[in-house]
Amino acid sequence: MIALLTGAGIALLFSLVGTPAFIKLLVRRGYGQFIRDDGPTSHHTKRGTPTMGGAVWVGSVVLAYFLTHLLMWLLNPHGGGGPTASGLLLLGLTVGMGLVGFLDDFKKISKQQSLGLTAKGKLILQGIVGISFALLALAFPDENGLTPASFHISLVRDIPWLNLAFGGTVVGAVLFVIWSNFLVTAASNGVNLTDGLDGLASGAAIMVFGAYILIGIWQRKYACSIVGTGNGTCYTVRDPLDLSILAAIMSAALVGFLWWNTKPAKIFMGDTGSLAIGAAVAGFAILTRTELLLAVIGGLFVIISLSVILQVGYFKLSGGKRIFKMAPLQHHFELKGWQETTVVVRFWILAGLFVGLGLCIFYAEWVAAL
């Protein structure tokens, strides 16, 4: 618990202090956001606002994670509490996807337009990062033979009959890579689509990471290596405590960023932040064995993504008709006359309800297994 609070405090400090310094740097270089001409007219005043703020979030997370473990080692050199395979893998996934977003943001800025990487190019780069993470997550077994990820699809824990390795290890690895890459790409794009209003994606992600703080702590308390496997309520998750520390660091770093990102935003996270945050969310789901539960915990990201899928699909099938005034969904309500702050707060409420429901499902499963 000391490491968790220490990490969160360091991340909050770095983010709070680092973001305004980064804003000054971006302003000097003229790195500002470009706004879609077909979007709400109220957004045109945001043109030129510094973007790529997600770089501060990623940097704060990396620095806080390693500094926290260094401090814990200095306090207890023989405690064995250094960085874990799960923590490093999740950190690598986050940084890797952040780099993809950075390339996208930098291309927008350098070409002075609102379009960055092509859809195909972005998917290829996301695939490289996601596949690398998936393959490495099946390696690095601990002393109990437990790897960061498993071949099973999970809800609250691995589902025994949903074993992707039914045809052998190679088949399982291929299927897991496909499954993991789907989760990472879907989540990163979901957060990216949500990042359209001041503070919306940041506030929602803070709550999602908060859920994984609690899940990690609970899984650590009832780890099979600690309580045994007798009653069937234990969790076979590698490094749950380190994952909860990393979730706290990510959540706290976002709180610091949100201080500057709330309306009127002094900086936008850009694809650098939204892709990194989405990848981290998917990584937590994979490593904590809560993959299907992510659809509930990250429910706001799901419905916003679905609004785009439905809009595009219906537009093509109907010959130009639309379900919503504009997609993603948050812009539909803006065009209906809702103030931006109203949309953000109400969507935060929805995000909180989804997170609460996900935690209820997680706990209810544990109670039912008693």
TrEMBL record:
This is Phospho-N-acetylmuramoyl-pentapeptide-transferase. It is found in: Cell membrane; Membrane. InterPro entries: Glycosyl_transferase_4 (IPR000715), PNAcMuramoyl-5peptid_Trfase (IPR003524), PNAcMuramoyl-5peptid_Trfase_CS (IPR018480). GO terms for molecular function: transferase activity. The keyword Cell wall biogenesis/degradation applies. Pathway: Cell wall biogenesis; peptidoglycan biosynthesis. It comes from Arthrobacter horti. The lineage of its organism: Bacteria, Bacillati, Actinomycetota, Actinomycetes, Micrococcales. The keyword Disulfide bond does not apply.
